[in-house]
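User: My collaborator sent over this chain with a note saying "see what the structure looks like." That's all I know about it. Can you take a look?
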Amino acid sequence: MCPCDLHDLQTGVYAGVKLLGYYRKGDTPAPIVYYVSPMETRPDDGGSIIHVGTIKLVHTFTNSIDVKYYGAFPDLDANDTTVRINKAIKGSCPKIFIGDGDYRIVGDDPSTSVTDFLRDAGGIEMQDNKMLVMSDNCYLIQRPTNKQQYNVIRAYNKKNVSITGGNITGDRDTHTGVGGEWGYGIAVSGGSNISLKNIKIKDCWGDGLNIQHYYDEKNVLHLLNGLTADKIISSNNRRQGMSIEAGENLYFTNCAFNNSNGTAPECGVDIEPLDSGSIVRNVLFDNCEFLNNNHAGLLAGGSANVSHVTIQNSRAYGNKIPSESGGQISSYRENNDIIIKNSFLEGSAESLYGVSLFNSPNSQIIGNTFKNCMFNNQGVIGSENLVIRGNNVRFFKDFQGAGDIYYYNSDRLPDNNINQEISYNTILNENTGIKLLLFFNVTKSIIQNNLISNYTLIDLKGKHNVFESNKLYDAKYHSLNIKEDSDHSVISGNIVSGGLAEDQGSSFIAVGKSDNLVITDNIISKKSYYTGAVSPYTNAFFINSAIENMIFKGNVPLDLLNFHASGTPSDSQNIVVLNKATNEYSGAVKSSEASGDTAVDVGDNYSKTEVQAILAELRDLKSKLRTAKILTT
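Assistant: Without extra context I'll predict from the sequence alone. Here is the result:
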């Protein structure tokens, strides 16, 4: 502008000017008109307010603004680009747009120490009630740094924030330092109502996406409350695809957290509260992927409670977590109400578990498909109120993995695993290299309507359990081993077929010293269900002769002796009632949570009235199990 133009602006000859470019003609998205505003008090922001000498020119952006109006262009110096984008976001316009091109960002901040983790420094800073929209070919690229921490985009204690589109690239391939693991693509600390959509994040020094709490000036912790993320793809990040360190009401749909590698934990998603106040609760993953990470696909557990986490309609496979450490999806320590349902999980030779629960009460594994992997439940603390229902597990013949696969480990205490339902699961092992051992060490639980084939051993241990209507085919040892002290339990209506010669036991069903049992209406066959091969076993049952108070009736041994010779003597009518009642127990299974609907002919030792009373009590207990959602039918 020449001096005469400035004079005419000052004297009101011109109402304003049309800007064709900041630095050269055409470098703005379009010409823009600025008006003279003598009363303007705000400083020059390089975009909506421009000072020319004493003249103040203003343009009010009302709906959307391109960052180019603030002088932010592709391939500029990273410092200039970061400053100018932040000016645009701090302006009055609610929607900020970044178009095609590479925009280098200064996510690191030299004034912060490593312990700050850049919660409130570095990168592009979102503001309350702002929407950042990027084109599909917009790339925000962290400049090379030796700093251990950075944020390409951050939302620190902000509300009503939306970030949509674009690509964020970290500096893992250009990083000039060696330490640290806190370089983040997007960092959200506290705040509320955050929306993320259609964003690709990769190659960060730490996490692609990091969610955590913040502390105010009085050192009071604040959780993030409310985040929705849709179609976020976070891949090849050095620490993990996403860390959730604190927050509630977090919803992830159609997202992918893949290929994390470089520094531990290397998970797709790690839900990891860091201190006792940073709880995580009410989290949903729907139609998400957790693939090919160097550890778990999703890992949950830390220093505070993690609760009400649901993973549904999702996929987890190719993750390299070793079998002894957990599964493709793992929950451990201080967790409850974890739900994995309607999802697909696939294992490998080194990773034989699809889902592992460690001390995770009130959890559910429902309707999932497991390929070459198994669900597992471990931990000495145990899991109360667990439901494992309707899952399909299959180990294929051509699977290269081999080893022992456990449901539970044998040292787990039944009293720590109470009120469990394990029902309607299909577990097919077609691989001869897999030794499948199921230890149901439970109390007051129901195991029913499961189909299990080609397994090594099933152990039932614990009191007040119901094991009924299961199909057990082609075991390699005892088909069913009822351990000692499994008092007040019911084993009823099961079909047991076939048993292989290797590591041969003497009986299909072995019953240790356990009192007050009901063993009724089980069918035991020598023939393999699948091949018709005849088992070398000769006995249907081994019954410990010291058992007190047992109802044994209606069992059908096909081409087998009823009892092992050293066990309870055989009875030609297959009716054995041992009555050694005590003052504590007036009859068999007085305290058992069994099922029964009609009285039976019990022979000479019980009156029909006594049995009717027992069955009435069992029906009452069955009703209570339904109320507790342990029994569904």
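A starting point for your reply to your collaborator: Helices lie at 3-11, 78-90, 608-627.
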